[in-house]
Amino acid sequence: MSFVATKKLTLFDYINYSLLGVISLACIFPFIYVFSVSFTDPEVYVPLQFYLLPEKWSLSAYKYILSTNSFINALKSTVFVTGIGTVLSIIISFTFAYVLTKKVVPGRRFMLSAVIFTLVFNAGILPNYLLIKELGLLNSYWSLILSGLTNAWSLIVIKSFLESLPPELEDAAHIDGCSDIGVFWRIVIPLSMPAIAAFTLFFAVSYWNTYFNALIYLTDAKKWTLQVLVKSLVIDSDSNGVGAAGGGGDDRVIPQETIRMASIVLAIVPILIVYPFLQKHFAKGVMLGSVKG
C-alpha cells in the first residue's frame, strides 16, 4: 500500500487562494454579464441591472444583428482578412525563419540583425501610414494583411524551434537527392506541425482582433472589420452601425444594450470555437520554440 504525502495548507495558502478566487470572479463576471444581457428578452430587460442569468431567454438581439447588412459585411471582411492573412503569415514566417537558420545563406547576418533591430525600434504610426498610402493600399483589405504578415518575436521563436530539429534528417534527405525546397516541405514542415498550430492560433487571433489598423486604413464603412463595428456600437453608442433598432423580422423595439452585448459575443465566439481544436498543440509548440539544447 502506498501513501501519498499531502501538504498541509498554511494561512498564506488560504489567503493566496482566496485572493486568486476573487480576482478570477472579477474577470469572469463581465463575461457573464455580457452573455446574459445578450440573451435577455427585450420585454424584461431592465437597464443598469446585473444579470447572472437571463430572466427570460431570447435570441431577438442575435436575429436582429445577423439580419443587418453592416454586421454581415463586417463579418465577411474579418473572415477574409483572418483567413488569407493567417495562411500568408504562416508561409512567410516559416520560410523566412528557415532561411535565417542556414549559415551559408548570403546576407544572413544582416537579415537577422534587421529582424532584431525591429524589436527595439519601431517606425511609428505616421511612417507606416505613409508607406501604405504610397503602395496604394489605403481602403484595401491588403493594408491589414500585408502590414501584419509577421513580426520579429515570431521569427525568432520559429527560428529557435527549427534549429532544435535534428540536422541529421536534413542531411539524410540531401544524400537521397532531395532539394532544399523538398527538404523544407517534406521534412521540416511535417516536424513543425505543433509550432505551426500554435502560430496559426497566434496569427488568427491577431488578424481577427485587428482594430487600429482597420480604423486608420479603411475609410469605407462597408469594409469595416468586426472590431471596428463593435467599437462603434459599444464605445460610440451608435446603434445605427447596424441599422435602427427594431427590425430583422421582430416588431418589438430591441434595447441598444442587448444589441451591443450580442455583437460582442458574436465577435469573440469564433476564436473560442477554434481554440479547443488547436489547444493540444498550443503549449507544445510554444515550448519547443523557446528552449534549445
From TrEMBL:
<dbReference type="InterPro" id="IPR000515">
    <property type="entry name" value="MetI-like"/>
</dbReference>
<protein>
    <submittedName>
        <fullName>Carbohydrate ABC transporter permease</fullName>
    </submittedName>
</protein>
<keyword id="KW-0812">Transmembrane</keyword>
<comment type="similarity">
    <text>Belongs to the binding-protein-dependent transport system permease family.</text>
</comment>
<feature type="transmembrane region" description="Helical">
    <location>
        <begin position="259"/>
        <end position="278"/>
    </location>
</feature>
<keyword id="KW-1133">Transmembrane helix</keyword>
<keyword id="KW-1003">Cell membrane</keyword>
<keyword id="KW-0472">Membrane</keyword>
<feature type="transmembrane region" description="Helical">
    <location>
        <begin position="79"/>
        <end position="100"/>
    </location>
</feature>
<feature type="transmembrane region" description="Helical">
    <location>
        <begin position="12"/>
        <end position="35"/>
    </location>
</feature>
<feature type="transmembrane region" description="Helical">
    <location>
        <begin position="183"/>
        <end position="208"/>
    </location>
</feature>
<keyword id="KW-0813">Transport</keyword>
<feature type="domain" description="ABC transmembrane type-1">
    <location>
        <begin position="75"/>
        <end position="277"/>
    </location>
</feature>
<feature type="transmembrane region" description="Helical">
    <location>
        <begin position="112"/>
        <end position="132"/>
    </location>
</feature>
<dbReference type="InterPro" id="IPR035906">
    <property type="entry name" value="MetI-like_sf"/>
</dbReference>
<dbReference type="Pfam" id="PF00528">
    <property type="entry name" value="BPD_transp_1"/>
</dbReference>
<feature type="transmembrane region" description="Helical">
    <location>
        <begin position="144"/>
        <end position="162"/>
    </location>
</feature>
